[in-house]
Amino acid sequence: MQTKISVYRRVLLCASMAILACSQPQSKGEEVESVAKTALPENVPPLKDYGGIGGDFALTDQAGQQFVLAQLAGRPLMLFFGYTYCPDICPVTLSKMARVYELLDIGPQEMQSVFISVDPERDTADKLAEYLDYFAMETIGLTGTRKEIDAVVQKYGAHYDLNKEAGKSDYFADHSTYTYLLDQEGKVRFLFRHSDTPEYMAAVARQLFAD
Amino acid sequence: MERACWFLFLLLAACSEEQTSSLVVSEAWVREPPGGHPIAAAYMVLDNPTDEALVLVGAESPVVERIEIHLMSHKDGKMSMRQIENLHIPAKGNLVLQPSGLHLMLIGMEQAPKAGESVELTLHFADGQNKKVQAAVRRGSYAD
């Protein structure tokens, strides 16, 4: 009998999860207005250790100031590699990050978002500032020389390919789409996939604040 | 009498179907480009109710320098985007252009499109037919 009940429970749980998964809101861009108190998923994987990747780095922020990761010590962060001409993946990822702030009801003092451009030729500090201002959060935008950026990309096990063709001024890069979650000590503790929902990301990130 | 009316209605409906373009385009939209870049992605659903596959070979717009068909694929945390020459819309089937998949890339726009505006697109097909579409510009969302 006991097992039967637990089987039923599992079936029910599965069914409700499936319904939840299917009923992901097809928002038409009113993300700012719908600050709903959505319940975050309970059963998310624990934070991990990625010994091989990550570490401090130095780049230039959108105000033209030198930035080192160590200056954010004590603050967790979400880190993403992209470029401002990115038509699809980058805006969705940044919108998801903005949603994570809403869901956790926190600001940049509690957790910082960082966007590293892999396209320094087109992404000047000003361009980065204009681009990041579009999203409802205060993101640190970083750029640098090709060499500086490549060093960070390599450190974090990321990847990009600008697909630049001779004579073509418009190009679209291939790039890794993970969002890195770093803890208060600057250590990589989770890699979010592009398919992860803001609710899932918020629930995972919440573990950094658990005490 | 009622039956006759229905018959007539269906007949007329079938006739008018014949006369209009065979393709139905719905949910056409353009993502407002963050940062004011004169470049944007367009998405839509293409329904082909006919018995013949349709082949989209290109698109143009009075406010866009050129439009490319892009296919995005996502594997092992890496996104790749490739330009492709044409898209097949199967007979009695549909094709969905959506974020993280297929889209029309509007490159070199006269100005960055703003949410609330619309962009006129003309789709070109291999059989010579053209289809005009008004794509609404809107802000993207985390749920796209």
Keyword list:
heterodimer; A: 211 residues; alpha+beta; Glutaredoxin; 7-stranded mixed β-sheet; two-stranded antiparallel sheet; 9 strands; B: 144 residues; mainly beta; Immunoglobulin-like; 1 helix; 12% helix; globular
Structure description:
The complex is a heterodimer of chains A (211) and B (144). Chain A has five helices and nine strands. Chain A has 211 residues and is α+β, with helices and mostly antiparallel strands. In chain A, β1 and β2 form a beta hairpin. In chain A, α2 crosses α5. The longest helix of chain A has 21 residues, at 2-22. Chain B has one helix at 2-19; strands at 24-31, 39-48, 54-60, 64-75, 78-84, 87-89, 93-97, 102-109, 118-125, 130-138. Chain B has one domain (22-138): PCu(A)C copper chaperone (Immunoglobulin-like). Chain B is built from one helix and ten strands, in the order αββββββββββ. β7 (174-176) of chain A pairs antiparallel with β5 of chain B, so a sheet runs across the interface.
Structural class of chain A: alpha+beta
User: In percent, how much strand structure appears in the residues of chain A?
Assistant: 15-25%
CATH architecture descriptor of chain A:
3-Layer(aba) Sandwich
Under CATH, the topology of chain A can be stated as Glutaredoxin
Given as residue ranges, the uncertain stretches of chain A (5+ residues, pLDDT < 50) are 21-36
**What is the domain tally of chain A?**
1
Q: Which structural class fits the helix and strand makeup of chain B? A: mainly beta
Q: How many DSSP-defined strands of chain B?
A: 10
- The helix content of chain A, as a percent range, equals 25-40%
Mean pLDDT of chain B: 88
CATH class of chain A: Alpha Beta
The separation of the N and C termini of chain B measures 50 Å
CATH homolog superfamily of chain A: Glutaredoxin
By oligomeric state, this entry counts as: heterodimer
Q: Radius of gyration of chain A, rounded?
A: 19 Å
Number of H/I helices of chain A: 5
Give, in order, the helices and strands of chain A.
HEEEHEHEHEEEEH
